[in-house]
């Protein structure tokens, strides 16, 4: 009679990794890597040992001190590591500190610049990301600046007009002059972001596009009648019709 052999019982660490992965909505392999690096606890762990474990988890040579201190405090390593608290920190910071550990220095610098511009213009980071996508799309020579020829191509596409001929070179030059605030003959990314929020994306608090739409905002910068209508529409509340 053939005896049925039960399947091997998975090690406790794998079972715990699966449970924690489900609880924190992480990949089980990711949780397993953290458990192997930090152990199952609750043994105390010194800062140097913790730093080495963090480097192993993220496969990097060094970890920023502020990130290290934040994770160390969250995990309670001085009195005994709490893996669940460490995972909670990981989830909360995975799009900031954790991604910064894995990103290249250039990517970190770019993320910081996008975040700073979002704060300056009081808008969401994803809005500045969209502006950067458009900037890189039309910066055809990858110079880091948009010259007039590139700007002439982007205006009709962003304002949804058939061609630059329908807008007019004179008007495009006026817009280019508004965007080129330092008057050096080209538009860098911070300058483009301010222009984009003013004329294309309606999220900016001072955006003309938010008040009247992108196309009207564009034409309103040239025609006094439209400027007056836009101003009156903002300054005067709409009258309610009496019944």
UniProtKB/TrEMBL annotation:
Swiss-Prot/TrEMBL keywords: Calcium
Domain EF-hand: from-to ranges: 126-161, 167-202
Example of a GO MF term: calcium ion binding
Source organism superkingdom: Eukaryota
Keyword Translocase in record: no
CDD domains documented for this protein: EFh
InterPro entries the UniProt entry points to: EF-hand-dom_pair (IPR011992), EF_Hand_1_Ca_BS (IPR018247), EF_hand_dom (IPR002048)
Entry protein name: EF-hand domain-containing protein
Origin species: Pyrodinium bahamense
Lineage start: Eukaryota, Sar, Alveolata, Dinophyceae, Gonyaulacales
